[in-house]
Amino acid sequence: MLHKGIEGENKRLEAVKLYEILDTIQEQEYDDIATLAAEICKTPIALITIVDENRQWFKSKIGLDISETSRDVSFCARAIEGSELFEVTDPVNDPSFADNPFVTGYPNIRYYAGAPLVTSDGQSLGTLCVIHTQSHQLTDSQKRSLAILSRSVMTLLELKLNQKQTNFFRSALDEIAAVAVFDKESNFEYANEKYCALTGLPEHEIVGKNYSAIALADISEDVNKRIFDAVSKGNIFRDTIKNISKKGDVSWSNLSVIPYLNESKEIIKLFTIRVDATSVVQLIDRFHKAEKLSRLGCWEINLLNGKRYWSEGLYALIGFDKITNPDSIPSLSDYIVPEHRASAEASLKNVVNGDLTSGMDEIDIITVDGVRKTMFITKEFTFDSKGKPLAIRGTVQDITEKKKTEKILKASFEEVKSLSDSREVLALTADNLSAMLAYWDKDLVCRFANSAYLQWFGRSREEMINKITIIELLGPLYEKNKPYIDGVLAGHVQTFEREIPLPDGKGTRYSLANYFPHIVGGEVNGFFVHVADITPQKLLEVEIRETSDKVKEQNKRLVNFANIVTHNLKSYAHNLGVILELYIIADKQSEKERMLGFLQEIAEGFTTTIVHLSDIVDTQNRLEIKRVPLVLYDYIKRAIDTLHIEIKNSNATIANNVDSHLIFDGNPAYMDSIFLNFLSNAIKYKHADRDPIITVDAQNTESELVLTIADNGRGINLATNGEKLFGMYETFHGNTDATGIGLYLVRSQIESMNGTVEISSEENVGTIFTIRFKK
């Protein structure tokens, strides 16, 4: 018996629904097989039946003029209970069928033989059966032929199902990215709708032509060479490229070129995936223009691996014509003038060693072309979930012209002071200046304020001059300014920035203040105040920083998405190729059917992956990723099914110990990627002396969900590789097919779902990854 009980029957009915064959139109291919069965078996009636929950339906009927019957009077319902030919030689005298209306009446069945239609996973959909209205008997040869023909019906059903799924894949891919497939000579074999839209050409004008004949991407010779170098070694190529359609429309894509190699490491096909990046490129372009307008540049230092990042604006400030090799970005300290270098390096060392506050510095540099400039540098930190600093980043602004202006103003003040203590002279000199100027005596009483200064504070000359003190003017801000006032009264020039809320509470203004002491006869009589409104510059700086953060986040999501697509497609492409080769060389029909079953499993997994990737495309511009309730057990099982070939080749055992009812709110595509990466790594880095044993467990508490993935593989030397374990492009065991993105990718995905990942490992013993998701 193939199916026992309600659970077995439910699985069989699910298989019937999967093939979508019930109530379809008559098709010649099925009628030909039924006709051949009737002729070989010498019977007037032959049927291809599908047994549903309450009926049996005839996909093909030769010699019978009805389309379906009730299941409770069906001979085929009995035939599907076994896997071999089911035969009823004398139904009139058989207690099970003697009262059957098709025996006692039309078509007066006197002989029945049915061969079950069995799927690769053992589910019987129905039968290919022959019926005679007179006493009859099949020879052994006829019985074998009937069984062979039933397998042919099953093969036809599988091919029809695969064709439907292939059409679905193409529709799904059209929603995700522009996809094209090339042969080893770079001739198009396939181009989906989005690819055709990019080119502005219909598919029939693309397929069969060489890539060079389709003017789509504006790719330089250097990039073409890098593509060839990468794919010829079996590696995936990634870059952002410009697309130019036949009509001249311009767009940008994140391009991935994936090679498919045979056993001899020769390229058989190339898959290209283009994910639209036009909005990101435009955002970056606006960011660069904003940098140029504000004479600003951005920088970052990764504190874990020492890698540096400079924006285009910073390169321009230092005097470079174009961006140098990203792997050889110079240190900013190389351009600091000698007299400022020691203090700048000491400041950076202090923050790296524990001073985690943001800071600002003014330093002078010598540019590449030998020009001395004054730069205003800001810095801030990024941290991991445990508060450990990961990177220091900031901005560099060219304030050379501003410093020159300040120097001129200071000289003007000195000149005014040398003339006399005459308020009239000071007023004539300063009142028409756009800069804000004031003079306060040593008792902190205002003796002079020009129009710009009065307007800034919203005061009239009458209520300000000789009446108000700086304590009264500043109010709550006085305590913040007091250290600078004390400093200038001690005879020292003071310079600082200040954030000032507007009186109506509807905004904030930013100022750069300079206090100059007025010294007569060696004593400080008061101080001059120069205030510059830098609100536009500060708002622009904030906008640039926010734009930079958005660019980085969008790039991170697109890289993450491209990595998921290429990693998962590579897995499916590899497994698909292996199974197709096994199908071709299989001698037995049973082996071919088994391979078709594997193809169906891959197709189902690919279908789910496509749906999840579509979700990422829908949400990639949102601040929060999409999270839905997931059954974790099913996602682990799908990863195991996808890795079927790798598991078989390595003789691996994977235990999915997670409760099949455990629900977790997560992102479907991310969870697919996380389990696929961890399990494939556990197989890939197995120990040479033992078969892989991998276990997946879960512990669910009120505060968190804890997943553990343990293996008995090679293990990792954490003392040597612990710090860089989750770094991008880091590899440890020398595998030539390792990309170094897997662990970097999964950590990013885990952290985006409010999770953390930890590792414990011992060389030659194994590794345990512990994933914690807070609730």
Automatic annotation (TrEMBL):
Residues 564-775 form the Histidine kinase domain. Pfam families: GAF, HATPase_c, PAS_4. The keyword Protein transport does not apply. It catalyses: ATP + protein L-histidine = ADP + protein N-phospho-L-histidine. Keywords: Kinase, Phosphoprotein, Transferase. Residues 359-411 form the PAC domain. GO terms for molecular function: protein histidine kinase activity. PROSITE patterns: HIS_KIN, PAC, PAS. InterPro entries: GAF, GAF-like_dom_sf, HATPase_C_sf, HATPase_dom, His_kinase_dom, PAS, PAS-assoc_C, PAS-like_dom_sf. CDD domains: PAS (cd00130). The keyword Transcription does not apply. Its EC number is 2.7.13.3. Residues 165-234, 422-476 form the PAS domain. It is an enzyme of class 2 (transferase). SMART domains: GAF, HATPase_c, PAS. NCBIfam families: sensory_box (TIGR00229). This is histidine kinase.
